[in-house]
Amino acid sequence: MEKSSHSLRGLSNEEVTLSREKHGANSLEHQDKNGFLISLIEMVKEPMFLLLVTATGVYFVTGKYGDGIFMLAAIILVSTISLYQESRSRNAIETLKKLLQPKSKVIRNGEIIEIPSEEIVLGDIIQTEEGTFIPADAIILQSNDFSVNESILTGESLAVFKNKDSVINEVFQGTIVASGLAICEVTAIGDQTQLGKIGKSLEAIVEEKTPLQVQIGDFVKKMSIIGLVIFGIVWAINFYNSKLILDSLLKALTLAMSIIPEEIPVAFTTFMALGAWRLMKMGIIVKQTKTVETLGSANVICTDKTGTITENKMSLAQLYTFSNNKINGNFNEKLNNEELELLRISMWASEPIPFDGMEIALHDAYTKWETDDERPNFKLIHEYPLDGNPPMMTHIFESKNGARIVATKGAAEAIMALSNLSEIETQQINEAIESMSKEGFRVLGVGISEFKGNKYPKTQQEFSFQFKGLVAFYDPPKENIRTVFDTFYNAGIQVKIVTGDNATTTSTIARQIGFKNPENVLNGDALMEMDEVSLKEKVMKTTIFTRMFPEAKLKIIKALKANNQIVAMTGDGVNDGPALKSAHIGIAMGKKGTEIAKQAANLILIEDDLAKMVDAIAMGRKIYVNLKKAIQYIISIHIPIVLIVFIPLVLGWTYPNIFSPVHIIFLEIIMGPTCSIIYENEPMEPNLMLQKPRPFTTTFFNLKEITISIIQGLIITLGLLFVYQYCIQANCTESVTRTAVFLTLIASNIFLTLANRSFYYSIITTLKYKNNLVLIIIGITVLITSLLLFVPAFLHFFMFDKVSTFQIMLSILVGFVSVIWIEIYKWIKRRRQK
Question: Largest Cα–Cα distance of the chain, in whole Å?
Fold first, then answer.
């Protein structure tokens, strides 16, 4: 909260309350979508749900009411679990949406405060700055160098300059401040704004699915089609053998249900949404859940210097006066006349209402050192915004008696080029710049000019300036930045600094923080002159890019992408928008970032702390690895379920239909929580941030990656078939055989859950991981399985029979052996890596 620097007091708290009661909130009233109902409809359309309902109907039609009631209860339970997971995902996304709502500065009770844009009321005084969205329709009261991009309403891409005296002195909700600052009074909010009146069309916009969601949907659809074909074959075989239509249908449904991996889309949605929610709790807002998956692949981070590497706490460090060729960094003593004049001109070259850190420092210094404050006597009559390459800005002030000040500041080389300097004078200034930059200071040149009349030059570069000196600011590096960079380097991620500052200052700061290869520098002009082939090679070797402007930043991102790099880029300004949009992971700063940057970015660091990017990448890697574990588990456990149903039937074994729908649905109830609850809650593996970034792919179904899962599934199948054949050879009844095979499958499932917690570390190591849900889920599984084995009612219902202690131990042993071989594979993997 800060005091308003002008006479406007804005609304009082009471007036805000009255206005809100009378005119409502600043939100667009679109149709409310019932998330629960949508989830319910989507679930009812799922193939698995339809199969369950069909099986339940068949049980009731054939008079098997007990089985029918069980299936009905199972449908309710499975649906509840599914809807609960959907609800968790939906709530996580809704929480993120609320955080993504833009904030606005308003003047209330004589103070500038920042509030969510929805809380703005009619009559509020708002302060809008470069890079922000206009939160409501309003009329301009005061402005500095103010222009607005109104393309969202007019389709015109060029910015329109406006002030209180313009023919159209209004600003409109949803438009973007292209430059400057304005104080405006709100005249319309919510549906009453120009945007609100046409906003109903937004309801028709449907959010597109990500490539991964499409692939997962296609995978499940293909498996459903395969299930349908095999379902037909199995139905035909059973009908041929028994001539019973409904009984054959039930047996065919059993196989169809075992084929469809409906847990995969649920796991994907849950992991991504909850991953985004977990990141949000860490101070990282992810705008699209697909970004979570991309995070783990990032291998290049392009970072800004000011406010990202440094504190963004500008303090005036040194003054260089051109007239006497001296640098002064001792502000404890009184400034001489030349230094006071330099400070004065620097202040006039700044915005009257400063919002940039350097301009605030200049105004503060002027207030401290200048005893006669001239600011109330002068009015800004013309200004040239920050532009050019390198950039500069010029302001023209006039007093009531006609006295004028034409002041400029910006990149020293830009102002030097417009001043009539000798070779010796240019050398003196360059030496001063070098001296200041070597200390890590940010250096601006300052100049003054004279102009009479009202026909101003079209560009500020047409003025002839008198070079007055240099002002240097110190922005110290953040305390934790060295550790942050070390973590990136250890994780196999390249770091590149992309800044508008000069090479010497940036390299000095880079050396202070232990940045690797700070001597590999390239400036914006040189970069733009390079052809694509040369730049593609150069961009990989260069670590620091200086004097960058929007086109150059975008060219860097494109060149890195052309080298197949997965690029993350930080940015905060309006001009960072194109590069943030182009990067695989655009990262905006939550505090100093403009709304444009936040809109273009995929990810927002709430506290402007690059260390959070380390957390984000670690979380991205962890989520991806855990999702991989879940999907590999699903594939591994589905293979034996499918084959133990299919093989005995097709080969005409003694007991061709070992499992019924009630057995399959019971297994589904166990497997669902295992993959989406246990694995989602798994901690990060110790070596995850010491590995190189994984290659980015758009699929989880790469054959090379899931081969190990297929092998796991096949070996578990061999174990089940071994137990099946053992029981046949021992002349066991069908019920005993079914019980032994089912128990082997449950044991295999438990050991698979434990073994697949890591594909690198041993099961002994992973048992030490902190995840209480593992014990809870496995404990519940063991308890329920024990009830099935020892409670007569359950034995009868599931068509089981009592089995001997030897048979129980054999089933557990076979389940253990079928899975534990993976530990040998992991041991060999660890040996090779060491």
Answer: 115
Q: What CA–CA distances, in Å, run from 354 to 121, 130, 180, 631?
A: 26, 12, 10, 54
Q: How many Å apart are CA 417 and CA 722, to the nearest integer? A: 87
Mean pLDDT across the chain:
83
Q: Which residue has the higher pLDDT, 110 or 219?
A: 110
List pLDDT tens digits, range 559-616: 999 998 989 999 887 678 788 888 888 898 877 777 777 777 888 888 888 888 888 8
Chain centre distance of CA 50 = 36
Least confident of 171-175, 244-248, 612-616, 664-668: 244-248
In angstroms, the CA 605 to CA 591 distance is 8
Please state the three-class secondary structure of 494-555 as a single string. Answer: EEEEECCCCHHHHHHHHHHCCCCCCCCEEEHHHHHHCCHHHHHHHHHHCCEEECCCHHHHHH
Burial class from Cβ neighbours inside 10 Å (0-12, 13-18, 19+) for residue 791 reads: exposed
Comparing 316 with 209, which gets the higher pLDDT? 316
Model confidence pLDDT, tens digit, residues 105-149: 899 998 889 888 888 999 999 999 887 888 899 999 988 778 888
Within 10 A of 176 (CB to CB), how many other CB atoms are there? 23
Alpha-carbon distance 108 to 738, whole Å? 75
pTM as predicted: 0.71
Helix (H) or strand (E) holding 609, with range, is: none
Structure tokens at 826: 């992991």
Task: Give residue for tokens 């009592």.
Answer: 802
When comparing pLDDT for 268 and 516, which is higher? 516
Q: Do 175 and 149 form a contact (C-beta atoms < 8 A)?
A: yes
Amino acid at 572: D
Distance CA 64, CA 56 (A): 9
What's the 3-state SS for 41-101?
HHHHCCHHHHHHHHHHHHHHHCCCHHHHHHHHHHHHHHHHHHHHHHHHHHHHHHHHHHHCC
Instruction: Kindly report the number of other CB atoms within 10 A of residue 762's CB atom.
Output: 14
**The dihedral formed by the CA atoms of 179, 184, 186 and 190, expressed in degrees to the nearest 10:** 10
CA distance 365 to 308: 25
Q: With the CA atoms of 643, 646, 648 and 652 taken in that order, what torsion angle do they form, in degrees rounded to the nearest 10? A: -150
CA neighbours closer than 13 Å in the CB half-sphere of residue 193? 30
Tokens of 617: 């990448």
